[in-house]
């Protein structure tokens, strides 16, 4: 299996080449954000405020990293269930978000928004937070520090192993994978 190396920020020329089922190594900067942070994003937008970082062409990792042990950049940082962010995702995609990393299926609304706004959803292996943390080069809390592990953390990653789950063409690795299994 070929592995594609991609670098953030994600731009349309990269997005249009990615296909569901591809394995990628992602490098660059990404932002962690879970449920509580997404709710704050929406509250800020409703109030006419800016988001805590420029979301255009960025990638959000649905993750709440654990504290860094001595001598480490970060603790375990495995993905959380993405469907909990589905309510907020189309709005963020309309503002320029280009990538999301998590685990599990996405709603039809999110998959349609991925096509409309040219964005991609990556899957990270659940239960492998310690392994995924080895891809993190640096981490810095950038917003909502009061949320503890759900604060927004800017991560620099190098060769983070991911799969393309949903692409801009409407393909879904969960659906195609299950269809191949049933044959």
Overall pLDDT: 93
C-alpha Rg (nearest Å): 16 Å
By CATH reckoning, the class would read Alpha Beta
Beta content: 25-35%
Report strand order across the widest sheet: 2-3-4-5-7
Class inferred from helices and paired strands: alpha/beta
Order of helices and strands: EHEHEHEHEHEEH
Shape: globular
Our count of helices gives 6
Q: What is the first-to-last residue Cα distance?
A: 21 Å
Question: What would the CATH topology be?
Answer: fumarase
Assign the CATH superfamily. Answer: Fe-S hydro-lyase, tartrate dehydratase beta-type, catalytic domain
Topology:
Layout: E1 3-7, H1 12-15, E2 23-32, H2 35-46, E3 59-61, H3 89-94, E4 99-102, H4 108-117, E5 120-123, H5 129-133, E6 136-143, E7 152-166, H6 173-182
Parallel strand pairs: 1-2, 2-3, 3-4, 4-5
Antiparallel strand pairs: 2-7, 5-7, 6-7
3D structure, described in words:
By secondary structure, the protein is α/β, with parallel strands linked by helices. It has a single domain, classed as Fe-S hydro-lyase, tartrate dehydratase beta-type, catalytic domain (fumarase). It is built from 6 helices and 7 strands. Strands 2-3-4-5-7 form a 5-stranded mixed beta barrel. Helix 2 (35-46) links the parallel strand 2 (23-32) and strand 3. It is globular and about 50 Å long. The two termini are 21 Å apart. The model has no long low-confidence stretch (mean pLDDT 93).
Features:
183 residues, alpha/beta, fumarase, 5-stranded mixed β-barrel, 6 helices, 7 strands
Characterize this entry briefly:
The protein is α/β, with parallel strands linked by helices and 183 residues long. It is built from six helices and seven strands, in the order βαβαβαβαβαββα.
């Amino acid at each position: 299996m070929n592995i594609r190396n991609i670098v953030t920020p994600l731009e349309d020329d990269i997005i249009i080449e990615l296909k569901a089922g591809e394995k990628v190594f992602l490098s660059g900067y990404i932002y962690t954000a879970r449920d509580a942070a997404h709710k704050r994003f929406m509250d800020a937008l409703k109030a006419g405020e800016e988001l805590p970082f420029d979301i255009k062409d960025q990638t959000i990792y649905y993750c709440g990293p654990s504290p860094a042990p001595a001598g480490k950049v970060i603790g375990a940082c495995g993905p959380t269930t993405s469907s909990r962010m589905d309510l907020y995702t189309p709005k963020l995609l309309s503002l320029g978000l280009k990538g999301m990393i998590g685990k599990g299926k996405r709603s039809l609304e999110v998959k349609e928004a991925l096509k409309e706004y040219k964005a991609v959803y990556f899957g990270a292996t659940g239960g492998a937070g310690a392994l995924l943390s080895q891809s993190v080069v640096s981490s810095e809390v950038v917003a909502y520090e009061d949320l503890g592990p759900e604060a927004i953390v800017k991560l620099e990653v190098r060769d983070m192993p991911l799969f393309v789950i949903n692409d801009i063409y409407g393909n879904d690795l969960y659906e195609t994978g299950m269809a191949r299994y049933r044959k």
